[in-house]
Amino acid sequence: MAITGIAPGASGTFTASPVNSLGAPATLPAGVIPVWTASDATVVLTPSADGLSCAVAVPGTDTGTSFTLTATATMPDKTTPTGTGAVPILALEVASFVINQTA
Questions:
Q1: The pTM is what?
Q2: Which fold has domain 11-88?
Q3: So what's the pLDDT on residue 41?
């Protein structure tokens, strides 16, 4: 599934699928767990126990337009395969009006 973005105050779930150098599915060695990071320090990351998915929450006060999400693993041979994705922060557009009586 393509990355479509997250609105401020909302969250999304992302997955990291290991692939080999030819782009074919691969399996991580036992005990290797990817670490997730975001270029926006206000974004809250909650990775799964196996590190292959991560819930990402964008605070309602975030004024950015996008951030880079990264998953990195340290392999037994000390190589560090990495994957990144650009995640748009979706603008909240006016959808309606709330009408209140003030007097």
A1: 0.87
A2: Immunoglobulin-like (2.60.40)
A3: 97
